[in-house]
Write a structure and sequence with these properties.
Layout lengths: L4 H34 L6 H10 L5 E2 L2 H7 L6 E5 L2 E8 L2 E8 L4 H15 L10 E6 L4 E6 L6 H5 L10 H20 L4 E3 L8 E3 L5 E3 L6 E3 L20 H4 L7 H16 L15 H10 L3 H7 L7 H14 L10 H8 L19
Parallel strand pairs: 1-5
Antiparallel strand pairs: 2-3, 3-4, 4-6, 5-6, 7-10, 8-9
Helix pairs in contact: 6-8, 6-12, 8-11, 9-10
Organism: Mikania micrantha (bitter vine)
Membrane topology: Single-pass type I membrane protein
Pfam family, one: PK_Tyr_Ser-Thr
Length: 362
């Protein structure tokens, strides 16, 4: 049976029509897949409002595809913690650190995400790690930070190898820079920001070993007129968290001052001192500092820490500031701007009281 010319044309047209339709369908499917990968499928109403609000802020919203390309499919792992894993990446000419958030529940991941973006997205200070942007999608929730080539302070403080250690003049600069970053959070932001987790692991160092306060996953915004902050659960790291946090008392921004004091003790001693591992309270380094200070023997303790003669006066000042910062009553702790001036030698350090009277008598 022969086929007429018109019928042949119809068959060819039908064939090519099917091809065009198929291509269109495949492009539609690809578009849907891309939307699924870049936009959350199920987003809570608070999160919708939060993402809308962040449109007017500085951070860039990246897609999951962009961050996979930037990190070479998350090839180089920099570290991991309780709420995520950090990968090295490159965006444009900038090295970045991409923190991929994960946790035991969707609610905790969202809480962590909002805490970091809402605080870091509104801050601009030399001694704070810069937040470049974020990704919030069904397949990826991540934060994009500037990359700190020298890692965290704890990697340098607690070395037990033959590698060169940071000199004390530089450690003093790191302490001052950290104090300036916290002072900015407390006193210079439109809304006060309480960090809640100041410790060596959250102080990052750039190529010049300048200190940058990082990891705002526990941070909280509060109005300046609110003298106390309501906490549903305890925050911070044992050994650094202020007593009022773990005793469920009223909490203020002075909890960061306490944590900074504990950080100063570890900077001068260069050893991690976990009170939970101490059998006798007299063996705890901060208590040793107080006892030596009370007996006017602080220099003896400093020499035991192998501090050079030229650094003795600076270290004495740092230890006195630390004792002021870890006072039991929050209202007796200095503000962070005063801490900066005391560390720099602009203000005299007042004679501290015994910060450890709340322990059993010893």
């Amino acid at each position: 049976m022969s086929i007429s010319f018109n019928e042949s044309v119809a068959v060819v047209a039908l064939f090519f029509g099917c091809i065009v339709a198929t291509c269109g369908y495949l492009r539609f499917i690809a578009f849907i897949v891309e939307k699924i990968n870049t936009e959350p499928r199920f987003v809570t109403l608070p999160m919708v409002q939060f993402l809308d609000d962040m449109e007017s802020e500085k951070p860039i919203r990246f897609t999951s595809k962009q961050l996979r390309l930037a990190t070479n499919n998350f090839k180089t792992k920099l570290g991991s913690g309780g709420f995520g894993t950090v990968y090295k990446g490159v965006i444009g000419n900038n090295q970045v650190a991409v923190k991929v958030l994960n946790g035991i529940s969707k609610e905790r991941v969202e809480e962590q995400f909002m805490a970091e973006v809402s605080t870091m997205g509104r801050t601009h200070h030399f001694n704070l790690v810069r937040l470049y942007g974020f990704c919030f999608g069904s397949s990826l929730i991540a934060l994009v930070y500037e990359y700190m080539v020298n890692g965290s302070l704890d990697n340098h403080l607690f070395k037990r190898t033959n590698e060169a250690m940071i000199g004390f003049d530089k450690l003093h600069e790191i302490a001052v820079g950290t104090a300036k970053g916290i002072a900015y959070l407390h006193e210079d932001c439109a809304q006060r920001i309480v960090h809640y987790d100041i410790k060596p692991g959250n102080i990052l160092l750039d190529s010049n070993f300048c200190a940058k306060v990082a990891d705002f996953g526990l941070a909280k915004l509060c109005n300046r007129e609110n003298t106390h902050i309501s906490l549903e659960v305890g925050r911070g790291t044992p050994g650094y968290a202020a007593p009022e946090i773990w005793m469920c008392l009223h909490v203020t921004h002075k909890c960061d001052v306490y944590s900074f004091g504990m950080l100063l003790f570890e900077i001068t001693d260069r050893r991690r001192r976990d009170m939970a591992l101490i059998h006798d309270i007299r063996e705890w380094f901060p208590v040793c500092v107080w006892e030596k200070y009370e007996k006017n023997q602080l220099e003896d303790l400093i020499k035991d820490c192998k501090i050079e003669e030229k650094d003795l006066e600076v270290v004495k000042r740092m230890l006195k500031v630390a004792l002021c910062c870890v006072q039991y009553k929050p209202e007796t702790r200095p503000s962070m701007s005063f801490v900066v001036k005391m560390l720099e030698g602009v203000l005299e350090v007042p004679e501290p009281l015994n910060p450890f009277t709340h322990f059993l008598s010893y």
